[in-house]
Design a protein that fits this description.
about 35% helix, alpha/beta, four-stranded parallel β-sheet, about 100 residues
Length: about 100
Amino acid sequence: MSRLVSFVIPACNEEKNIPVIVKEIAAIMDSLPYAYRFLFVDDGSSDHTLSVLQQLSKENQHVQYLSLSRNFGHQNALKAGLDHADGDAVIMMDADLQH
């Protein structure tokens, strides 16, 4: 049984970055002996972030998401993700591809 790594990624108006970050991290994780999961937290986005997450979660078993009712701010979105994350390790990242 492999260990599970969860990536908690708050996102606000990141519709273009989300598919890229999933692709880049998956390319690395697929070569490692770990199971992994993305837990995105949509922090009240006004663009198509939520619909991108909904579609990706249907297409990719590794993608999960939470949707906050409004923008609560980065730290609160991160906390919501941490409250719902599971796994042997949790990695917190920003959705803007800066990490």
